[in-house]
Amino acid sequence: MGYRRDVSDWWRDFVAALPARTAKLAVVRRDGAPHVAPVWVDLDGDDVVFMTSAATIKGRAILRDPRVTLCWDDERPPFSYVAVSGTATTSTDPEELLRWGTRIGGRYMGTERAGEYGRRNAVPPEMVVRVTPIRVTGARDIAD
Fold it and tell me: How far apart are CA 80 and CA 101, in angstroms?
């Protein structure tokens, strides 16, 4: 198929594929410097959902400036990637924390450990972060 930039028909499948790929989250620090950190994610329609502590660099950055970019890649030939830029909203609702913590934990650690991760992450200062995409870019089968 070759190099593709039109991601409209495959980016969700790429992000949602199992085994789950870790996303790299890019935010801007208070001093303007970039910061990139890995996050576990899931999709809710077109929205990308992940959790982080409000006390981390990424959490503080999102609360200050909700513009973020997430990137996933497949490092195996023929190589592919997806980048989602968008606006983040946050929630500290206990039910949402438990639901998303369990769901995301299950994607990365398996259903048998999903509840454990959900309970562990459903406490303050954790927050659910929902990214509504503004721009989605990527390429599939780059080396073909």
Answer: 27
Only one residue has tokens 């972060």, namely 129
Contact 8, 140 (CB under 8 A): no
The residue among 8, 48, 6 whose CA lies nearest residue 24 is 48
The number of C-alpha atoms within 13 Å of 138 and in the hemisphere containing its C-beta is 26
Find the helix packing angle between 111-121 and 94-109, rounded to 10°. 140
HSE (side-chain half, CA atoms, 13 Å) at 141: 7
- Along the chain (144 residues), what's the average pLDDT of each consecutive run of 10 residues? 62 96 98 98 98 98 98 97 98 98 98 97 97 96 93
Which are the contacts of 64, defined by CB distance < 8 A and separation ≥ 6? 30
CB neighbours of residue 131 within 10 Å: 25
Q: Which two tokens stand for residue 81?
A: 């990637």
Q: Are 26 and 69 in contact (CB under 8 A)?
A: yes
What class does CATH assign to 11-139? mainly beta
Per-domain residue ranges of the chain: 11-139
Query: pTM score > 0.90 for this model?
Result: yes
